[in-house]
Design a protein that fits this description.
Layout: H1 3-88, H2 96-100, E1 106-109, E2 115-120, E3 127-128, H3 147-160, E4 168-174, E5 180-186, E6 193-201, E7 205-214
């Protein structure tokens, strides 16, 4: 082998090595890029669940607030319905004590010696009338055979829970106006004694406005 050939081969070897180094560098670069991409994907993917996890309780809290609001509104609606029913429900009177149990009744001490207690209540309703009243006028009657007189007596008996078969009428008279009346009634044994003031309401009937619990009949009329 000539000197020239040996020199040629000797010059060629370094060229192949340099080429191999370049390829190795390329491969290393690709691997690095892949590592970076994979790492970025891992970190990016793991951050999203945290965000969702953080947001989920907010939605739950919001739903709980909405549920609470709904329940409060439903309760208010139910309370309003109950109040409405209480106002519209007919007055059920079984005794004078049932009048005193009302939340709206006002009980005061009588200013007269014969009066123990005075009961008033703005929620007392007029007892329905059967008279033909067009609202333009009403004629109060004290004829015991008239429908108006009977309705006066019925209103007094019902508001005091006195039975028609256990009733003494001491008097019923005008109370200072054409649409007012006052009367004293008692049980037959005189253990229950009352003086009742009435007011006529157009198209409705006689409405009790005051019930006085008496301790005696004398001086009550």
């Amino acid at each position: 082998m000539t000197e020239e050939n040996r020199r040629y081969r000797s010059d060629k070897k370094p060229s192949n090595k340099a080429k191999s180094d370049r390829i190795l560098n390329y491969l290393i670069g690709i691997v690095v890029v892949l590592i970076v991409v994979v790492a970025a994907f891992i970190f990016t993917g793991s951050s999203n669940p945290k965000k969702v996890a953080n947001e989920a309780p907010k939605e739950t809290v919001k739903e709980q607030v909405n549920d609470s609001k709904t329940k409060d509104e439903e309760k208010k609606t139910e309370d309003a319905k109950e109040d409405k029913v209480d106002l519209e429900k007919p007055l059920e009177i079984t005794s004078i004590d049932s009048l005193k149990e009302s939340k709206t009744v006002e009980i005061t001490k009588g200013t007269e010696q014969i009066v123990d207690e005075v009961l008033t209540d703005p929620n007392w309703q007029a007892f329905p009338t059967k008279q033909q009243d067009d609202g333009t006028g009403h004629t109060s009657s004290y004829d015991e055979k008239s429908a108006d007189w009977k309705e006066k007596l019925s209103a007094m008996a019902q508001i005091t829970a006195l039975d028609d078969n256990d009733l003494i009428i001491w008097f019923i008279k005008n109370n200072g106006g054409p649409d007012t009346a006052i009367g004293t009634i008692s049980s037959k044994d005189k253990t229950k004694k009352y003086r009742v003031s009435l007011k006529w309401e157009n198209k409705k009937g006689w409405k009790p406005v005051k019930v006085e619990v008496l301790n005696q009949i004398n001086g009550a009329y």
